[in-house]
Task: structure prediction
Amino acid sequence: MNIIDPALPLSIARLDAEGRLIDAEARLFELNMRAGGNIGAPLAVPQIATLARLSQRLGIAISRNVIAADGEDDLELWVRAEPEQGGVRLEVSGWRLRPGWRAPASEPERDGDFFRSAADWLWETDASLRITFLSIEAGARYGFDSSAMLGQPLTRLFRLEQDEAGELPILTAVAAQGRFDGQKAELRGTGRMVRLAATPRTDPGGRFAGFVGAAHMLDQAVPAAPKVDTPLPQAAAPFGGFPDSFSQRLDRALRGPLGKIIANADSISAQTEGPLKPDYAEYASDIANAGRHLLGLVDDLVDLQAIERDDFETGDEAIDLADVARRAAGLLAVRAAQAEVRIDRPAMDELVPVHGEFRRALQVLVNLIGNAVRYSPPGAMVWIRLERDEGHGHVIVADQGKGIAQGDQEKIFEKFGRVDPTEPGGSGLGLYIARRLARAMGGDLVVDSAPGQGARFVFSLPIRQ
Amino acid sequence: MSDNPVGTRDGLAISAVELLARAAAAELRAYKGLMVAVEDFFLPEEARLDEHSRAGLAALLRGLVETVEGEIREHAVRLLTGRGESALIEPGVSVLARLWNSGLLRDGDLMAELVARVRQEMLGGALPMNAPDDPERPSLINRFVQHPDRVVAASAMAVLIAESRRRGSPEVGQFQTELPAELHHRLVWWTAAALRERFEGANEALDRALCDAAQRSLAAYDEGDRLEAAAMRFAAAIDAQPGELSGMLVEALGDRRIVLFIALLGHALGVPYALARDLVLDPGADRLWLALRALEIGREGVAQIGYALSEADPRRDLEKFADTLDTIAAISPVEARAALAPLKLDPDYRAALIALQRGGVK
Result:
């Protein structure tokens, strides 16, 4: 197995006992030159010089992952320093440009967390691809002996399958020290198929040290054997196959922490605890906004699950659509003022009696007016008009934004159907939910608009005689 | 919906009497709050838990209490249902919150164990990985799984199993507390008591169910299953000889198996795991250097171990270590063993000596 990728060339240098450069291969030589060093002078890249000195003092070979500035760029290097004939021999590989920003957690840890959230179970190996860790309960669940597999070659647990190109993704990944996904395999002796994904572990010298991996079962998940006296579980709810309790748990698990994040970020941003550098206060405000966005998404997902159930029903109350529209406009007054958008709300004496559920109708209108405010340029106006015909009362919410092209008008009502995914804000669920709610109440939600003309949403509910 | 900017809180109305009572209590609360703040402010920085350990400790404690609570509650409910009294164990005040507020968790032995475990995990997690020179060579413990001696192979396997179990699973969480038996014992009874407290008045059926459930949990618990115990058994099974110990210690660190490292050290020194762990976790590490010299680990081995630990623990001073390395290497094993002799005395005797010193004036 070739552990040194040709794409990550190794560059070797030697230093004398005083830390002066004796010779260096091209890449390292050039880096050192650009940093202001030369042959016969002390090494000019401080991080590498430190490591060399340390290796010499300790008298052992040591390796470190080092970030070195190279002009405008940051280079990520793997440096190995080893004492040699009174001086030090350096091996530098990696030579990757470092992305401008990276989360502080080391990569395998973060990937581990990521896998953990989605995988059915987890595994890890050492450099020789022998298993060093397995989710211990996976064996009992999927029919193999976890404990007998620990310490064994990975291929003892999995019979690996070639992909369409006739290759084994895992071997390609070992050779390239990269991650892989989509390695199909059979859990030996069980007839069950899994998809394996993993990221490599690399030691500070840049050498492959094993995989941190996840397994996704490809066949039907085996339900835990039902206890004799417990009723069989209901057919899976339609919401992505998640059980009902999922969204409740999601709601409970996220709402509290998010609320705290938002509240704390807001108080940092408001500098309630004392003055702060303005950019920090701004970051805090970004955090609070992102938190609100997530909280909104949680609400949407919880709603989504509710409305996608077969037995979802809305209440039938006698409500006044004009009143609901005025309240929705009132709720958004602050946001509209911040965005310098005026809302032209229905007059106090207007009345449109309809059937519907107050809370849900309010939810639909807050969504429509909120969107209208968001997409309006400063100084623009959002109109709320009321109409009625034989069977229905209508609220029309019109804005002066950039409008919606004909071809996109159905798309915006689709689940996660965002026209421009790069646009900030919104989960892509709001209008989908709003339309489902309108229809559940016996009404509808439609749009007409042309690019450049602003958007016009019409929300209808059955009229009350 | 995401565009709903208003929070709909439940209206919270309090009576005037309540408000007055709260105002009256406020002064005392403010004073107490201030005292805590003063305490906090004057704590020496180096003695304080860093945020990482603090969060780790809270998560560990929560996990342990929930594991025990789940076990006892589940069994007690089954017993009560069998006796036709199902409704007795219902959710109430969280057991963790109750134990926390009661001060019971301030138990010195328990906290010593938990703090050590959190630090041990942090250190293990931060150790730099060291890939083998030969990529086909399995890691240290995996090589022993293949060992022809069944005792050695089985004990190596037991370490791997215990470690996989210790890390828990995304769904099940922790499988068991992995505490020393005595501490597990305490936690089980505290939890049973906290569950009992949710119901006022005499209730023999509930008392009996909780006792039975607690006893069952204790009977099923085997501290020999702990990762630390498995690692000590493994260290005893391979009984590393002086010539091979240094390489094994270094390799265990390179494989990021801190528990194995501590166990190898503990066995070689002839001290219990907890004591070896203290030596390894102490960022000052003077006792560790003496211990390594007592085991005749050479300059290179000490350097590799010191370097790996320093890379993993920001509290350690690598430069200072490099400065003292020659001094450490110059200590003779005989001297080092003499200096460490007190470590081998009866742990209770040593604990008593320390307690007496802490007590102050003679």
Remarks:
- The CA atoms of residues 169 and 250 of chain B lie 29 Å apart.
